Model the fold of this input.
Amino acid sequence: MINLGLEGQRALVTGAAVGIGRSVAMWLADAGCDVALVDKDAESLEQACAEVAATGRKAHAIAIDLRDEASAAQLVDDTVAALGGLDIAVNNVGSLGGREPAAFIDQDADYLHDVVAQNLFVTVWCCRAEARAMLAAKTAGVIVNVSSGETTRPAVDLAAYGAAKAAINHLTQTLATELGPHGIRVNAVAPGTTLTPTVRDALSDDYVARLVESIPLQRMNEPDDLARLVVALASDLGRGVTGQLVLSDNGAHLSRNRPFR
Done:
């Protein structure tokens, strides 16, 4: 039997109430981790926390809005207090910040700030707080940042989002270099279009069918796809991997240059 080395590890997952983050939290718990689940959606967060607790692992809910810089330090302090330390951090918060896709020339200053803050700034603040906690405790930990497949191709109508996520890729490489001597690994993972409930409701059946046709593996991403990858990178299976962007998109990056309409 393969030992993943995750039994008793302390993990935090942001954006953990639904979708990819919720799946990541469950997979980490199933692999033996105690998990702090972080999200601003308190009701859904409590439900996700109950699912993690049902695995027999410790589950701790932190309802917080990470758009406030001080919140990142607060959530890490809360995690360390609740779980006794921090070994694994998965920074999954990211979205269009309530904005709709739009041509770059139509993205005004408020639009650009909202999208960049929701993706890049939140990840920067979380990484800094997580790294400080790991360094203070001399923990050889793992940080996983959730990026996007949009960073591998032109992100038409998603310029700010794609640019912010691409900056996360670069940040990941830099942190891997700076923190590596302390035994801390930092990687980024990028999902393809993932059929979370929100995404599924937003896409027509025709769009999904045409998208699947364009993907080499002929299937859409499910939240579990990225969760499996995160567990592998966080575990001893990924002990030699750092500073990487790893895609789990069923090969979509090989065939898509423009979004479907």
